[in-house]
Structure formats: C-alpha cells, structure tokens
Design goal:
- The protein is an alpha+beta fold and 238 residues long.
- Helices cover 58% and strands 14% of the residues.
- The strands form two sheets. It has a three-stranded antiparallel β-sheet, with no helix packed on it. It has a three-stranded antiparallel β-sheet with strand order 2-5-4.
- A hairpin with a 2-residue loop joins strand 4 (44-48) and strand 5.
- The radius of gyration is 26 Å and the shape is elongated.
- The termini are far apart.
- The mean pLDDT is 82.
Length: 238
C-alpha cells in the first residue's frame, strides 16, 4: 500500500498505469473541475465545488496489461486505453472561451452578411461588394481584438469592449449604407444583441450546444420567412 500527498503546479493531468493483477487507486484533490474521459473510468467518484474524490479498482483482465514488459513491447500495448487518472480542466479559462467564440465565428459572420443581403433586398438598396467585405473583415477583427484584450482585462470586460467597438462601428457605417440614421442605429443595436447572444453561448458550459442549435434554427427560419416574402412581392402576389 502506497499513499502520499502532492502539491502540483503547472500540471494538467496525473495518470497511473495499472500493471498488477489487482490495482486499486484513490485520488482526492481540491480541484473543482476534474476530467475522467481518458482511460478507464473510476468505480466511484464525487465532485463538489471544493474538490473531488475518485476510486479505481482494476484487474489485469480489464486492461490486458502484462505484469512485466520491456520497451520494445510498448508499441503494441494500448497504454492510453489502460491508464487511469484525472485531467485538471479549466472551464472558464480565457483561451478556452476565445476558442468557443472562434467556433461560432464563421457562422456568426455568415449570418451577419446574410442579414445585410436581406436588408438590401427589403430596402432596395444597392450595396457594393466592398461594403460586404468591410463588414465581414470587421466581424473577423472582433475576435482578434477580443483575444488581445482578454489577456489584459479578463474575458468579460474584453468582450464588452470589443462588442461595443464593432457594433458601434458597423452601426455608424450602416447609416450611409441604409440611407437613414435610424436604420443604421437599429443595425448596430441588432448586431450588439447578436454579440450578447454569442456571449451567453460561450458562457454556458452544459447547454452551449443546445442553445446554439436553437438560436441558429430560429435565425434560419426567420431568414426563410423573409426570403419567401421577398419572392412573393417580386412575383406581384399580395
């Protein structure tokens, strides 16, 4: 029986390789977000806001690991599948949130450009290809500014600053595009609302995929309804 207490710094994971006929391990720690996805799952585990505890009991027929092996046999042994341990995750870490934002970024840019295309058809305004390019580039630069600011200000404040800057920039640019100050301000407000919805998706750990799917479905349904209305109007139907 071996027991010990370790103070880990700069370590992302801690694993053990069960090579005995019967192998039992119990791990406890004060990390609130452990991950058990890699290797064999624990027999019992408890995760709270102040820490975790997990117990493994593994037999040799579970892993197929021999009691002894040399370095030339490592390649044929599936060590990653047989190992046990934890990964110290950071759900709220700024780079992880930026990565989540990037994952929705392409779709968000596409929806923004599609919205301006529908507005162009509704208002019968002739937008240039340069206008679409500038709006698209501004949406891409939003994520760059977000990453740069979040390293110094924290993610929440950096997101608020970046969203305000680019929503205001696109709103001011839209005043001339849409031919009205009110329309331009409305475009900026709608874009700011989109940034707010994106922030909720990024901050939601358990329901991010569900919320994203529902939001995208609603936006696509709205776009289809507007497109059908434009088609009917173009064909002279009431």
């Amino acid at each position: 029986r071996l027991s010990g207490q370790f103070a880990l710094a700069g370590v992302q994971s801690l694993h053990a390789l069960p090579s005995a006929s019967e192998f039992s391990v119990e791990m406890r720690g004060d990390w609130p977000d452990p991950g058990f996805a890699s290797g064999l799952l624990p027999r019992q585990r408890e995760v709270t806001a102040v820490g975790f505890s997990a117990q493994w009991q593994v037999f040799d027929f579970n892993t197929g690991m021999p009691a002894q092996f040399n370095e030339y046999e490592i390649d044929r042994l599936d060590l990653a599948r047989s190992q046990i341990g934890i990964v110290l995750q950071q759900p709220g870490e700024i780079y992880q949130r930026n990565e989540r934002a990037w994952k929705y970024g392409t779709l968000f840019v596409a929806l923004t450009l599609a919205a301006f295309f529908l507005i162009e058809l509704l208002l019968r305004r002739n937008l240039w290809a340069l206008d679409y390019a500038l709006i698209g580039v501004s949406q891409v630069c939003f994520y760059l500014l977000l990453l740069a600011l979040s390293e110094h200000l924290g993610f929440a404040l950096a997101y608020a600053v970046a969203a305000t800057v680019f929503a205001g920039m696109v709103g001011a640019f839209s005043i001339a595009l849409l031919g009205s100050r009110q329309r331009g301000l409305a475009a900026g407000v709608v874009l700011g609302g989109g940034y707010g919805a994106l922030y909720l998706l990024i901050g939601s750990e358990s329901y991010a995929l569900l919320l994203g799917a529902l939001l995208i479905t609603a936006l696509i349904a709205t776009a289809m309804a507007v497109a059908n209305r434009l088609r009917l109007r173009a064909e002279g139907c009431p």
